[in-house]
């Protein structure tokens, strides 16, 4: 009989440093069902992906095969009384009883500046009328598809322009007294469709282009917005992040035994993979770590392999044989483009200098710091030369080019600038 002994790795120092960090808590109120884009189950996945702790209040149990079961008011009230401090609230499918219970809760939360996100797509006409009288005035944001907004507001007119979308978003804000409205899938375009975010206080509309969403996706966006707000992001940041997260989750859709569902966890790391990559990991007898290939297609020269790779070669050839360089050589580059290049290069040098300043501050010893200072000094010299080219050389060359335009439109007069630069290098 054999046995082996191994050490369990202790948590890494940077992980232990965050042990007292507060995890945001989001309360989600809605239906528990088998739908992959709405319901409490989906909210839990989305909030977990955003590193939020989830509190749940189930209003009803939905099923595709049996009648819905509405959770008794007394049970919901008991559950709600146990939930104290939260950082955000997201509502989905509501019932009359749940609206009555939430009425007092949302107003106390609003007075404490806790964001309240309402997914209007999960409300029917009856609950919507109750909600906008009792809950929506205390809300932070209402998320609604354009088709649902038209249905709830009893609008028959087709939405043909952005102005039509703005009008409906404004009307939804007026009816609900909500300070912010996000209306999705407003108008089709070549990229998919546009979403409209309306901030009542600023009287400002923000239009974003993205993919067209399927029915029920507004609940996903609502949960993601709530998570972002709970994590301390601004409203504008939260809305943008929620839309991009939802698009990415749909783009990485996974196949299950029954259906295809969005990949809500696409950004979550698997702890085991991180463990085996740790240099201190010793339990190799228990967990096999992938070994690098002993031989492969790279052979001897990795650089040659890379630039000749079929996925890289076209881009590499375009990069090294750039048309800009060809036009400089034969004197056909428009003067304004050359001026733009010089000005852009100056801005690049500013950022390049900042990078080396940061590198110097991180340098392990004085010698490395001195090398970075030398580089920054050279960058400063080049910036001075660029400024002279912009202020003097380019303007003079422009006058000469304009004077000689009748005889020959050429930028060969600019070559001395390049020759001088090469000599200085």
TrEMBL record:
UniProt cross-references to Pfam families, sorted A to Z: Phos_pyr_kin (PF08543), TENA_THI-4 (PF03070)
Every copy of the Pyridoxamine kinase/Phosphomethylpyrimidine kinase domain together lies at 39-257
Q: Which GO terms describe its biological process?
A: thiamine biosynthetic process
InterPro entries per the record? Haem_Oase-like_multi-hlx (IPR016084), PM/HMP-P_kinase-1 (IPR013749), Ribokinase-like (IPR029056), Thiaminase-2/PQQC (IPR004305)
- Tell me a Gene Ontology molecular-function term this record carries: hydroxymethylpyrimidine kinase activity
Task: Tell me the domain of life.
Answer: Eukaryota
Q: Gene Ontology cellular component?
A: cytosol
Show where the Thiaminase-2/PQQC domain sits.
309-389
Name of the protein described by the UniProt record: Uncharacterized protein
Per the UniProt record, the source organism is Huiozyma naganishii (strain ATCC MYA-139 / BCRC 22969 / CBS 8797 / KCTC 17520 / NBRC 10181 / NCYC 3082 / Yp74L-3)
């Amino acid at each position: 009989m054999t046995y082996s002994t191994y050490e369990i790795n202790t948590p890494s120092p940077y992980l232990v440093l965050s042990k007292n960090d507060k995890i945001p808590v989001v309360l989600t109120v809605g239906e528990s069902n088998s739908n992959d884009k709405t319901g409490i189950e989906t909210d839990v996945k989305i909030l977990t992906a955003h590193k939020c702790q989830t509190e749940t209040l189930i209003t009803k149990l939905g099923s595709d095969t049996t009648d819905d079961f509405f959770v008794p008011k007394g049970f919901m009230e008991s559950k709600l009384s146990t939930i104290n401090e939260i950082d955000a609230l997201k509502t989905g499918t509501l019932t009359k009883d749940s609206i009555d219970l939430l009425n007092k809760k949302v107003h106390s939360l609003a007075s404490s500046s806790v964001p309240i996100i309402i997914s209007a797509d999960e409300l029917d006409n009856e609950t919507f009328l109750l909600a906008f009288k009792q809950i929506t005035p205390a809300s932070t944001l209402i998320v609604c598809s354009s088709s649902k907004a038209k249905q709830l507001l009893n609008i028959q007119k087709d939405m043909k322009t952005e102005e039509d979308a703005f009008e409906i978003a404004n009307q939804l804000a007026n009816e609900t007294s909500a300070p912010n409205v996000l209306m999705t899938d407003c108008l089709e375009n070549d990229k998919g469709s546009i979403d409209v975010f309306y901030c009542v206080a600023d009287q400002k509309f923000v239009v974003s282009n993205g993919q067209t969403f399927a029915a029920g996706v507004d609940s996903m966006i609502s949960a993601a917005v709530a998570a972002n707000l709970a994590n301390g992001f601004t409203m504008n940041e939260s809305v943008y992040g929620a839309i991009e997260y939802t698009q990415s989750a749909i783009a990485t859709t996974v196949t299950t035994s029954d259906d295809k569902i969005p990949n809500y966890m696409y950004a979550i790391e698997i702890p085991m993979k991180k463990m085996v990559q740790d240099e201190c990991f010793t339990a190799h007898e228990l967990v096999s770590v992938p070994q690098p290939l002993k031989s492969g297609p790279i052979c001897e020269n990795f650089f040659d392999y890379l630039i000749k790779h079929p996925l890289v070669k076209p881009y590499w050839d375009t990069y090294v044989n750039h048309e800009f360089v060809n036009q400089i050589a034969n004197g056909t580059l428009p003067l304004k483009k050359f001026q733009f290049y010089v000005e852009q290069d100056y801005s690049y040098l500013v950022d390049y200098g900042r990078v080396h300043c940061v590198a110097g501050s991180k340098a392990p010893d004085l010698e490395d710091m001195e090398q970075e200072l030398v580089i920054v000094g050279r960058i400063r010299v080049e910036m001075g030369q660029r400024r002279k080219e912009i202020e003097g050389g380019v303007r003079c060359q422009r006058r000469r080019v304009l004077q000689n335009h009748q005889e020959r439109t050429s930028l060969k007069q600019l070559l001395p600038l390049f020759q001088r630069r090469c000599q200085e290098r």
